[in-house]
Amino acid sequence: MLNTLSSALKKGFDKIAGTIFLDKKTIEGIVKDLQRALIQADVNIHLVKELGDKIKKEAENEKIKGVERKEHLTKILHDEVRNLLGDKKYELKLEKGKQTKIMLLGLYGAGKTTTSSKLATYYSKRGFKTAILGLDVHRPAATDQLEQLGKQIKVQIFINKEEKDPLKIYNQFKEEIKDYDLLIVDTAGRHDLDSELITEIKDISNEIKPDYTLLTLQADIGQTAKKQASEFQKACNVNGVIITRMDSTAKAGGALTACKETNAPVYFIGTGEKPSDFEQFNPDSFISRLLGLGDLDGLLEKVQSAIDEKTQKKLKSKLDKGQFDLRDFQQQLNQMSGMGSLSKMAEMIPGLGKAKIPDNLLGTQEDKMKKWQHLIDSMTKQEIENPEIIEKETSRLSRIAKGAGTTTTELRQLLKQYKLLKDMTTGGDLANIDPSEGLSQKQMQKLARKFGKKMKM
Ligand SMILES: Nc1nc2c(ncn2[C@@H]2O[C@H](COP(=O)(O)OP(=O)(O)OP(=O)(O)O)[C@@H](O)[C@H]2O)c(=O)[nH]1
Ligand SMILES: [Mg+2]
Description:
- This protein has 457 residues and is of the alpha/beta class.
- It contains 21 helices and 8 strands.
- Magnesium ion binds at residues 112-113, 136, 142.
């Protein structure tokens, strides 16, 4: 369902989380990809343009920096696409012991009969005593189709194969159907919304007085759904929409967003041919599904865990003063292992992190890092601040290793890495960090590459 849009969205969020410095060009790239995908999903070009302008305007707010900026962009991207799909979840109000009547309308082949059985399945499963009244007197096979579906889903069907007047059929079963919590009325389709169809629908509607008159639209029609929905709304008091065949078209985005523009909320979507291929339409869960992962909070969490800006700032100011002791090294390790959690993220968002950070910096190192943390914990304040003294005295080496429950070899390795990082940071790699931005993407990549290569674990 909407695969192109789904992958464009995933890629966009992937970029936001994986890019350490979000510049104007990156944002523009993300917006452009998203816009292209929306147009492919047949979303109206004006809506697409509006969405792009809004995101760019909000995202380029220079006052918001660093991580907050990424959170901000993640949120607006998510919210804007979500708002395009719908404003909230709409639910039909049904009550057990009190009858609700739903009449389904739509053009020929839109999925009315299938949807009748889907609705019946949905509500009978939830304990509503449900029946379907078949009022399609025009298509010869209509009654057989309903009869079959009724058997399949074990729901009572009311049909009359001989009668050609829908009102007579309704009156014939009028008493019997009173018994049901939910009565679903299936009607005939036409190629166009012609005056004959309008008259027939109006007559049925005046007689039955449905609580809901729902228009069935197939997703394939894309953004023309807007025209169809508003025509039906004007002619027959349509107060809601069900979109069918969401599974079989790339244009579903067009149909959904077009309905958002009319005042007919989308209550349900059909996602296949089976009676159970049916779900309530909820813009929030729909976008989560497009993203292939949890909700907005989940996304934000990922952005936040990607980098800890405060630590970077502190480190920078220490570097400025020419100080970089083992405590800073430890912090840097934490930061790197924090990036280790990126590997988990990378599983969920294909391509994230792994492309930029060498593999040996992600998973395999975690164990070693823990050992190193223990080693640093076993040192005295003096040793932490002046690591050079450790190697000069073997007694220090063995004392620290013993205290951490590990070997002197491990300790020597730690000291080697510390020196390496210290050289790197004083050698200019980290010296150009702008404290307001943290490490730039390039700097981080360079650091990761160097660090990863020399560590050889
Ligand atoms: N893949 C897919 N097919 C669907 C879906 N809903 C309906 N169909 C198919 O669409 C075709 C038409 O469905 P019907 O329910 O007969 O449509 P209708 O509006 O009642 O048609 P008329 O009564 O002839 O106007 C059938 O082959 C259904 O199986 C859906 O959500 N997904
Ligand atoms: Mg039908």
